[in-house]
Amino acid sequence: MKPSGSDKTFFPWQLGASLYMPAHRADLVSIANGDKLPGLRSMIFCTEDAVADDDIGRSLEHLRDSLKDLIALPDKFRFIRVRNPDILKRLLDLPGIDHIDGFVLPKFNESNFRAYFDLLNAGQFKLMPTLETRDVFDPAAMTALREELLREEVFASILMLRIGGNDLMNLLGIRRPRGYTLYQTPMASVIAHLACTFKPYGFQLSAPVFEYLNDIATLQAEIGLDLAHGLSGKTAIHPSQIATIEACYAVGRDDYEMALSLCDQAAPAVFRMHDSMCEVATHQQWAQAILNRQHCFGVKEAVPLGSEAYLKTKNAY
Asked: What is the pTM of this model?
């Protein structure tokens, strides 16, 4: 069995703002096929937290009935968030599962690593394990998990690691206060540690959700901090968040021009540009990430100083 999306190129920025939705959602097919929410780049059909225990059977039946109606689309990325390894096994047996690009593996740690990967053929589907258990707070446990994920047959399947912000805050007995970014909570040090543990080894990390729908200014501020921590692909909890998230992913003109210059083979080892020091040897990965973002989201339009649009943007932060 080979997924219909296996000829796609996969890198995390292509997912944009992924939208979670319950797997029994009635309009699942119209969303997956781009008839509804045509601008949506990626979607995650959830059989875990978004589905009550009593609805699991109905969700799996709905997925079974829906999969046969999905059409191959090169610019749509479809994932299923499984509930546990047993649900993954049942999903893999469904006709049409090859229309799915991959799976989100929740509550992922060393204790269920083998149960998941024994079911999966290497490279068959793209995988996004979610780091959201108390092991995340244990540096030794995260290092051990990283070593397991670095195994050749496993690493090739990992598209990114997801950070389950709300689950982790639940373990701490807190919820982000309205008007605060995650980086004004204990999650700041957790995200920084995960970035330092996994990113130097080639793993990408997604940004946790922002659960308030009427606070665009704080969402924008949080996305800026996500980017500063090297996170990509903030999950949307509602379609209204998608445009805001992806607008923030557009790159600044200065950054784009510096990235192009840093990737120019004729560039000197160190040079000054836009009043910044640019050093080819140390800024190369940053430059490539900027170009990948620009490829997906474009370059931000310059906003004249003193204009109404500038003042709104300035005040938003």
From this structure: 0.90
